[in-house]
Amino acid sequence: MLDILILLSAYCxxxxxxxxxxxxxxxxxxxxxxxxxxxxxxxxxxxxxxxALGVVLVDVGKxxxxxxxxxxxxxxxxxxxxxxxxxxxxxxGHIWPVFHGFRGGKxxxxxxxGLLLLWPVSVLVLIAVWALxxxxxGYVGLSTVLAGFSLAVLxxxxxxxxxxxxxxxxxxxxxxxxxxxxxxxxxxxxxxRFDKAMLWRRGWRALFGK
Length: 210
Hints:
Elements: H1 2-14, H2 18-26, H3 40-47, H4 49-74, H5 81-95, H6 108-118, H7 120-137, H8 140-157, H9 162-178, H10 180-188, H11 199-208
């Protein structure tokens, strides 16, 4: 019964959307703006850096807090089954929030928050893959999907405990699912590209003028 309460609490924590919570203070609902997504990327595009930073901090924090609660009240290790499932519940809550009509964000920031406690070294790999892809292509969605799958690869090659391996595969597929619109637009050739982030191309042009 306690485990169920912990997982329900993790889901409810995940359902607290940073963008919608902060948006109430500003009088905006970013689901009606930009891409219509309640995540940090759309918050940045429509409301600016400071607002997006606040959104990311809330969304990362709730993922970490969900895992901490599971460890605190179950006395399990961070990589054990219950804390790992709690992290997944927080991500699911962010994607399908009960407090916001089951219409939320894409779950990446909340995933990072959970991993900060579950598997800290993996966050470095995720960020490295995400940044590498973003600076090469300018596509945020593609970068997030590849970072998600890099987590599953890391879990496999690093012989991660079974709960983390299963979790990594599930969240990689979740990142692909929540970014399916981005991938479709990418294949159609009309996905938004963050040109200013393409540091490789800018550096190449600076050196060779092409």
